[in-house]
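Input chain follows. Return structure tokens only.
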Amino acid sequence: MMHAYPPCRRLGDGSAHHFFGYYNKTAWDRSNRRVLALQVPMMDARLHPELEAEVGFFDTQAGDRFHVVDTTLAWNWQMGNQLQWLDGLSETQIIYNIRQADSNGVYPGFGSRIRDIDTGVYRDLPLPIYVVAPNGQYGLCVDYRRLYITHETIGYSEKGGPFEVPKCPSDDGIYHMDLLSGEYRLLVSYKALSEFEPRQSMQKAIHWVSHIEINPASSRILFLHRWTERVEDETCFLHRLITINPDGTDMRLLECSDHPLPQLAENFDPNAVGTFDYEKSEYQISHPLWCDDARIVVWGPHGGSIHYHLYHDSKEGAVSVIGKNILSENGHMSFSPTNKRWLLSDTYPDDSTHERILFLFDVIENKKIDIGSFYADPGLKKENRCDLHPRWNRDGTKVCIDSVHEHQRQMYEIDVSSIVAR
């Protein structure tokens, strides 16, 4: 017998479209009152450098009134503009990516902005942000123009682009940026990554990184190193899960899914690959996130089979399966901020119904609890799709998603307090 789903409500009045982006950070402030979002006038559009989004937040204690605090031209449908709270600095400061006039920067035309949403005071930083350390001291930065070439879904377009970029440069990779001074340094280059426990398949490939995450103590970094000879076909992407210290020392390889690529044959048609085929590949390593300071949850292959895996970030590298024979699909997963008993995740759309399942998994009882099913418009493809990207509020009692099941791109909150209180 099917159980009833917990209460789900849309944020806002639906007069405009709203979304947050990725699953790896909370949209709520410390008080669980204000919810960050981007506001746009359309559900879907081909992105270009002049397309504007409004940066703001819902006030859930004032009828979900949306407050616009700025605009940005540096965003995409999948990850937004990396909008996030700067908890390590104050309760009212946020950071997000912008386009700027500086043509002499590391990544010309792109930077990030720190803004106090109460006072409006802001200051700009020279590099676009990917993720911010929980202590608010530093951020990690990448070239979104490179991502637009290698994995358009998470990149930013550029006037006249996309342009060619070096396949494996020694002067680009992940940058470490001090959030107070704006000073930056190269943490690890693509050249260094290609020389770290190298594989034959790397030699002719273009390299990039994604899914960069910092542990709660701000003392350790994880990321996916990816490479391919055919950027047009995501099933040709190869992956490694790597960790490193913020000073660039002690780099560790936790997993590698290098595998044969028959798709590189000249007669292979990448246009025949479905929108979500890549996410469902048996070789995929995706969506890694810190469970705590030493453990990482990730979807990927290990020991010949693919599961939700929990890796210990150590030289021994102990690996365990989460939800064996129960959690059998890739998703966007994160542990509750207050109780590691609860894992939140989702599925990609069913091929026939186009429904996506949102669920909680009880790691103690080894039990999956569905908390919602949401229709995904099959007309939305890789670059403009709307994944649920579920994220927790601060006390682990509510979940926020992006969805298009009501034929608008909107944000919804689901109350899971009665489930996690069991």
